[in-house]
Amino acid sequence: MSAGRTFNGIAALCLAIALAAGVAAAIGVFDRGSGATASAVSIRGEQFTYATDGIYAFNPERVVAEGVGWDVITLIFAVPALLLALPSLRRGSLGGRLFAVGILAYFFYQYMMYAMFWALGPLFPLFIVLYAAAASAIVWIVSTIDVAGLPRRFSAGFPRKGMAVFSVLVALMLLVMWTQRIATGLSGDLAGASLLGMPTLTVQAMDLGMLVPLAIATAVLLLRSKSWGYLLAPVFAVKGVTMSGAICAMLVSAALTEGSLEVVPFVMFAAVAAASGVLAWRMLRSVQTV
Questions:
Q1: Calpha distance 290→275 (Å, rounded)
Q2: Is residue 202 a contact partner of residue 113, using CB atoms and an 8 Å limit?
Q3: What per-residue confidence (pLDDT) applies to 287?
Q4: Span 217-243, mean pLDDT?
């Protein structure tokens, strides 16, 4: 397959992913239900409140509120960002490909988590299709990149050390936050662990199993000036903007439901989003055309 046809195919797949994600997110935002809830007791004896209608029915009320906030960021930022990347993808721009992989990594994480975490509902098949398609698109795009030659494609403005330090800090932040919550849950304090009637801590498992190793690998590879570090760094930074922004939106949405904002986590993830944005901009700006 010629390079032109390959990039056109990648752009077509990314267009389909963006449109499907836009549909899923719009349904999540505009079909959240009437707000009706009911109380239940989990198999562990935990009292919690769950939504009784809407697209996310049968999920804890707090989880639905957070999901709507996440869907808002997907709808107004992530989907348009991937759509805006399509022309550069068709041209085969390296910066466009790295940016698109970062957005696709966000979609992969979001919809894999949705498929594993949400109560079974009408969007379940679409969630599976979306995270599988995002993973396929990531592999396809990476296969078109000369990873070994990546260090030569960036100027001296690439923030190698700054990104390495940032990656370590993010890994440490997640480790401290989530190991503490896991320990709280295992001690029997289900409310303190925010289990919310769910059987396990899915987000913590995904972050500790995927994001923390990715962050550490990015830092080590960058400090050693390895070519794969130059691939992971912009992807991790772009995903950091979208993911941290989504967490801030989730906290705001939950506050609108519960009446109070968790200020410390909001400030922490807002800082991560801002730092990710600056680093992503510097890295993508440093890409040199051949």
A1: 28
A2: yes
A3: 93
A4: 95
